[in-house]
Amino acid sequence: METSGAHPPDAAVLDADLVRAQYTPDTTYLNTASSGLLPARAADAMRIALDTMTQGRSLDSLFTDVEEARASFARIAGVPVARVATGSSVAVFTALIAASLPAGAEVLTCEGEFSSTVNPFYVRGDLTVRAVPLDGLADAVRPATALVAVSAAQSADGRVADLAALRAATRAHGARLYVDASQAAGWSPLDGYAPDADYVAAVAFKWLTCPRGTVFFVGPEDPGELTPVFGGWVAGERPAESCYGPVTELARSARRFDEAPGLIAYTGARQSLAVIEELGPAAVRAHDLALADRFRAGLAALGRGPVPAPGSPIVSVPGLGSLQPELRAAGIEVSDRAGNLRASFHLYNTADDVDRLLDALSS
Predict the structure, then answer these.
(1) d(CA 218, CA 212)
(2) Residue 5: pLDDT band by 50, 70, 90 thresholds?
């Protein structure tokens, strides 16, 4: 399977016509960090899938959608499709990694990390979990560190991890690197770090604009490195022959780590990921960051300073989270995170959306 997809000739220019045809919000939607908008073609495909289920037709095409979505994510991530597993929860894949660690192993993470990225390490009870400030994470790796677990971009405020420094530090000390790309996949160059990380997990319902219930996991090059502790019939090399009793032959790829798929969600994901591939991740990134920078400049003019998060489309403004209900009433969707107003800018947003939020805040 090829690991690079076709991108627009000029990858820095977003195809506005394609965006308008596929994404049709009726609000000023600046909340992709919570949940992305679904493209029209994904919604259409899911309606057809529902008809297939209600009318008793074969589900073979829906299982094909799972495999096409897996291949599309592999191209976006720049990894062989054999390294990609599908599921519905990042926490499940975190738990898969946690189960592989020996008792007493040290897991290093950052303070305030998203729960799905770290909680399974804590609940095991026999691991040492150490949390440090994000900007000190690479320097905190030491010989005793078995694994570093971190989000590529922080959910609460958009701060971006220095993954190159972390990869260098983990290699120097023989540690593994686990990246949660949930707040990055879809706008950041996932293929810039996914091939080199030991493990990557990402929900796809945010910046990849897939339906909820879709998660991708990039496993190790040697799938035997992890034990598929939650593997069911889909973990077999020949799933149709693995329905009864123990699975006698595990899939020879990361598919051994699959959860049984929510078929309708993956039918939509196939279409959503195709849109992301057609737009081109570089074009999406340039568009998103330009809007975020416009918002930061507008905040400065209002005398407001966001949490410093350069190079991120997520902007968190201290002290303004309480305005979220009022903004929603005005048709502007943002989040309140720990008292901060969190705005997130994605491919379907425009400069007018940014200005509308700034006007609301100024008044």
Answers:
(1) 19
(2) very low
